[in-house]
Amino acid sequence: MQEKIVILDFGSQTTQLIGRRIRELNTYCEIVPYNKFPDDTAGVKGVILSGSSYSTNDSNGFRTDLSLIRKKFPVLGICYGAQLLANTSGGKVESAGLREYGRARLSYVRPDDALLKGVEAGRQVWMSHGDTITHLPEGFEIVASTGDVKVAAYHVSDEPTWGVQFHPEVFHTEDGMRILDNFLHVCGCSKDWTPASFIESTVANLKSLLGNDKVILALSGGVDSSVTAVLLNRAIGKNLTCIFVDHGLLRKNEFENVLKDYEHLGLNVIGVDASRKFYRELAGVTEPEQKRKIIGKGFIDVFNEEALKLKDIRWLGQGTIYPDVIESLSISGTVIKSHHNVGGLPEKMNLKLVEPLRLLFKDEVRRVGTELGMMPHLIKRHPFPGPGLGIRILGDITAEKVRVLQDADDIYISLMREWGLYDSVWQAGAILLPVRSVGVMGDERTYDNTIALRAVTSTDAMTADWAQLPYDFLAKVSNEIINKVKGVNRVVYDISSKPPATIEWE
Fold this sequence. Notes:
The chain is of the alpha/beta class. 30% of the residues lie in helices and 25% in strands. The chain is built from 13 helices and 18 strands.
């Protein structure tokens, strides 16, 4: 039976980070909406309540029946989660007056507390809340304080329940991982969830789920779909058919290169050149979300057409990973962006969906791929969006614009590899802007396109910082693009972080 920690998501921006930290401690966890605690609790070892943008005193705030978990599982409430536990037990949570945000230092730590074992006064924690606990219910005992926050952490005396008003999951809390590890120890977790164990359990589950059914898989050449293909191939072998679609929005020469890359994996791959179809359907479309939907639907249409040529296909495999799921639909129901991997399937396809990597972050996918023995250049490849260059060409899409961007991007990525910078960034790519400007080449005046270069550092794409690439490298890239790519006379570098920007421009 799979041990797991259940994280109830109350809408915090760091909920996924809590999950990442638990998994870094070799423990499987699942993030579920605050009001969707699983009916099947087999394997559940403990529960974490996340933070939230709401106040516990807000009538619209997210609330749930905590009697389902209190005294039945060890519980750790973080920020809003800690305040909710106190508020619903007779305590008092009030506005802090000024938002308590940023670094703070523990002024008191109860030495015998199981959650804070090994944590000493003076250590830094990270606060981010507008409310504070001003009165604890009976039986709730303070186990940590800071200079400004008396109830920085508490323990419920007659049950394995704790609350912390700081965020142990963030980097700035110096003993955050120790605190989470202590909680896992209280939960009795064996901490044996590794890439090898994930592969073993996933392949076994796929065999059980799929049986002798046949699967058609969307291959993109990226890390996610590649690892998905290998896992499915291990489970069902010849019953897997991979389809790689060239929508005309791939990087330069990518269609040919990807097909070569898969030869060593023993996969059954069908290559489909559907570029004309996509260009035709995207003609004149400028709105980003509409472009994504057209490209996503185009994939489904092509898969449906190919599936009809095959016999007895019952499943569609996809390389969806967790950030895709989170960004497609937030807990509040607000769509950030659609993603063709999680957009649903038309009924006419009559195919069920299998997504083996759905709950993994990108770095976890890479570790699984390495454990599977896949080639390093497939595993270390930068993420590339499903809609491809379609969302890196701002405005309408034409074959000529694709040619310009492919050439510019090829120069950028090739030089990044040549200079030894490729592996030091999370993702890089060129963007064609709908901006033309005056330039001078030789004795002639030009009025040509602008290319923006993007490179970010990240661990999971939930947050990202712009990469501080060397000036001489950027100068070299700019010079090469302007001199060699017809139609470009200006190159700029994007120095925006996520948030507030996103990694992609559309």
